């Protein structure tokens, strides 16, 4: 791997041991990938969360993050060197306000607070969300980033035209400390071209439809780059967010094109780079039905005791839409409603009275985490309803529950009646 003078200086230890260990990791990582060089980044998103059993074993945050985030048996001081690139923390394992009802212990809570203090002392911005682009971290087209979190990666690559691969704990931490990341994968022009063409032959209208299309796309193309052709109605941020999250869950998609809508292609030909598609697929009524059945494959019992919104974290528009449906109503006595949003947007919801509408109905507006990442659900629940393809895909496997997937309206109806009455129309 070819290194610049400033990269060689970091590797030689001239900017501290933490940065030296980070650069050593990136060089090994890049060589394993076949990257010829590193690229500068000033936008890194990572997940640096200390777990109790690791802290009990290793004894300190520096020891833990040296071992698990820098692949270093030598303990180095992360906070001493501080981050070199603008860096944000993605989700954490609990909401600091509602940790008790999420089933976390006092010890877990105190460790989380100490973890946040440690990261802040090293210069990490505590956004604590899987949608940092909703609360100020909005990379521009062509900007090289180093982000974790599948739904965030596919969103900024596709909708915004920023450039990142789906990084891991180690590579993102190393990028924070060095402002570098291997130049490979979706940092390179040719790898961003579309591979599979999907002709959409049925109406894709609401958020559920976009989730179904995304789930089908991911299932069919796996980790390649789908081009979605034939969209008649302009989608908004919410629909693209759900599409990408579903595609990333079912197949590992990190980038897609919708010609004339997403950032990098005005036409199908431009998305393909004037090449032929590897495969041409269709999304019609039969494929829509297939995706719906797959996302609802775990659901049998129509008695719903948990309704969940906000995966990826809900925008303020989504909260507004939920509140329009929920205002003046009460949850069924056997049903729990949890909604997840970035902490910064929860404050806006508080000021607008949205939180009060949710609370008055019996629900809770939470932040900083989600059931899949935090691995928690309300005690004793068996059947969930959600408008999130990602959550419907993961949570039944993680927590052994049933999950219904449907529209926002169907989920609110389930929260109020305690019954699933949705279906594909």
From TrEMBL:
Q: Which InterPro entries match?
A: PMDh-L-like_dom
Q: Any signal peptide, and if so, which residues?
A: none
Alphabetically ordered keywords of this record: Iron, Lyase
MF terms from GO for this chain are:
lyase activity
Cell inner membrane found in the keyword field: no
Q: Key word ATP-binding present in the record?
A: no
Phosphomevalonate dehydratase large subunit-like domain location is 1-413
Q: Report what the protein is called.
A: Phosphomevalonate dehydratase large subunit-like domain-containing protein
Species for this entry? Pelosinus fermentans B4
